[in-house]
Design brief:
Elements (H helix, E strand, L loop, with lengths): L16 E4 L2 H9 L4 E6 L9 E5 L4 E6 L20 H9 L6 E2 L5 E2 L3
Parallel strand pairs: 1-4
Antiparallel strand pairs: 2-3, 3-4, 5-6
Length: 112
């Protein structure tokens, strides 16, 4: 397999879009990881957001309200977050999220 090296045709960024139960709760959760809301969308007349763009200086993620129930243990995507101080990030991320869980590698699993 030949890998494309043409700069003009190269992907310059890839942003995951995650299906969530609540865009507002997801934005609050990712806010504890340093993300801020860059953009949002709610259909006219809607009481809650249906989509949000979240960003840090080095990372971006989109969250969208799922049409079907979200079952955390059946999600097929993993996110690897790289931080300078894992203990401090773990402490900040778990504030107010009593249902947040960490495995022994300090992998954060958002509350279901």
């Amino acid at each position: 397999m030949k890998i494309a090296r043409d700069v003009v045709k190269s992907v310059v960024a890839m942003v995951p879009m995650v299906q969530v139960e609540s865009v507002e709760r997801a934005a609050e959760f990712y806010g504890h990881l340093g993300f801020v809301i860059g953009n949002t969308f709610a259909p006219p007349g809607a009481e809650s957001l249906s989509w949000a763009w979240l960003e840090t200086p080095a990372a971006q993620i989109m969250v969208a309200r799922a049409a079907e129930p979200v079952i955390p243990d059946q999600q097929g995507v993993l996110f690897y977050l790289y931080v300078d101080d894992v203990a401090a990030m773990r402490e900040e991320a778990s504030r107010g999220w009593s249902r947040a869980r960490f495995d022994r590698r300090a992998v954060l699993r958002p509350p279901g």
